[in-house]
Amino acid sequence: MQIHPHSEFNHSRDRREQGLQNLLDRLVKSIQRDELVRQTTNQLRESLQVDRVVLYYFYSQWQGQVTFESLSSKEFSILSSTGPDDCFNNEYAALYLAGRVRAIANIELEPIQPCHRDFLRNLQVRANLVVPIVIPRGLWGLLVAHHCQGPHDWSSSDIEMMQTGAQTLATDRNILES
């Protein structure tokens, strides 16, 4: 029996190269996805003229965190914020999964759960607009606009803009594959 060290070496090199190519492909998809989210949140914040637009990404069943934000000022940053565990439950998740859009012009006047109001106050939110990002396998995230400096009346065109942004994200192949 003859040993062919070159063929074994070539096979090992091919596996390494394939592994590196797979890694590079995943990195490129991740960068493209992140850039789309960044562009979407920036455009929405500027168009809506609000203090903050964030992507709240669900990394497991109804647990998530703010993974992207576009800010009018750094003082409004809530990056990595997780959310009120005791307030967001299956009932609310089902509503967003069904396409619920929630527009609150003034959190102090809106009939919401006390834990939800306290949570929003802690984030400096005075008004918010929440639109779901639904992909075929479920609720991927929430696109959220916050106005922190005062109440904000949300127009139907504001809501449509947010829904268009969410739909853009929900149909992107890099998000569908993530």
Automatic annotation (TrEMBL):
Record Pfam families: GAF (PF01590)
InterPro entries: GAF, GAF-like_dom_sf, Phyto_chromo_attachment
Domain Phytochrome chromophore attachment site: 32-162
Record-linked SUPFAM superfamilies: GAF domain-like
Protein name: Putative GAF sensor protein
